[in-house]
Amino acid sequence: MAAGAPVRVGFLGAGFIATFHSKLLRASGVAHERAGVHDLDRDRAEAFVAAAGGFVAGSEDEVLGSCDAVFICTWTSDHEERVRRAVDAGVAMFVEKPLSTDLDGARRVTDLLAGTTHQVGLVLRRSPAYGLVESILEDADRTGRVMSAMFRDDQVLPTGGRYASAWRADASKAGSGVLLEHSIHDVDLIDRLLGPVSSVSGHQRSFHEIDGIEDLVVATFELEGGGVATLTTVWHDIPERNSLRYLEIHCERAFISVEEDWFGPVRCTVDGTTQEWSGDELLAECERRGIPTVLPEGEFIRSVAEGRPASPDAAVALRAHELVDGIYRSAAAGGASTQL
Fold first, then answer.
1. In terms of Cα–Cα distance, which of 82, 27, 112, 49 is closest to 293?
2. Which of 44, 139, 160, 340 has the fewest CB atoms within 10 Å, i.e. the most exposed one?
């Protein structure tokens, strides 16, 4: 990449999640130039380019030859080979989560990414709402220790509707269901905000009876600080509840809740008073506390342009994969505790 030139950005995959990242990259305001886009469905690639710019590439190699950074937004089982090709081409990568369909694959992808500029799509690490929660909890002298936390995540089954991810009903492509494909975000947040996590246990069900794809997981996390957190994550058939998260945390001297995963409201009761932040007030509070609120897609491009490591990287994602794997192993053993 020539010094001072805008980063050229390509896309492998042009479906729902690629479109999501593309829109947020543009919204970030970070300077970049659109390059090649490739998807197995050429019509989808053409629609993507018509909306976002760039050009429809005839092959993945053409994309990689046209860009300095690429967003890998293919189905999960495809990530390892796409990463391998991008490494060989010397291209920086934004790799959609999860890294792979299982823990061994995630380890291989992490090894491939070592020494390259890359970022993993654990985008809730850039959420202003959860960033504020992290800042509040850092003042443990005020809040006391985390005693318990309850995380609920419910999403309409993403095989159709606005997501149109039919491949998520294919375990050979997705690996498994709601925990890995969706709530790896939540597992990562629990470990980051409340952990470290020392052990996990869980139960899973498949109400939709899709082979190898669970749609309900209830997990328990033992925290090194002595507290306990739970996660309930569900794929359902209620389109009016497209994708919703709710988190509440009880500390020794504080109660915190988050009702929406980006702009709140965030509520905190401590020292006899309750404060609430949402929308612009939340962003202003983050700015006052020095909490970064740059969109993750834009931060990735800035990292590429400046030649510095991006975050979160594969090592962070691998930790989340280890927790997810522990929950699946517990569920297979009838809910037995799994040490980490």
1. 27
2. 139
DSSP-based three-state secondary structure for 57: coil
Query: Is pLDDT above 90 for 126?
Result: yes
- The Cβ of residue 241 has, within 10 Å, a number of other Cβ atoms equal to 12
- Which CATH architecture fits 7-123? 3-Layer(aba) Sandwich (3.40)
Fold of 124-292+313-339: Dihydrodipicolinate Reductase; domain 2 (3.30.360)
Dig out the tokens for 305 from the structure.
Answer: 């342009």
- 25, 74, 205, 252 from 295: Cα distances, Å: 7, 21, 34, 33
Ramachandran region of residue 89, left (φ > 0), alpha (ψ -120 to 50) or beta?
alpha
Domain ranges of the chain: 7-123, 124-292+313-339
- Looking at every residue in the chain, the average pLDDT score rounds to 97
Interval 260-283: pLDDT, tens: 999 999 999 999 999 999 999 999
Can you read off the two tokens belonging to residue 112? 């491939």
Is the pTM for the entire model greater than 0.85?
yes
CA separation for the pair 130, 265 (Å, rounded): 11
DSSP state of 208: T
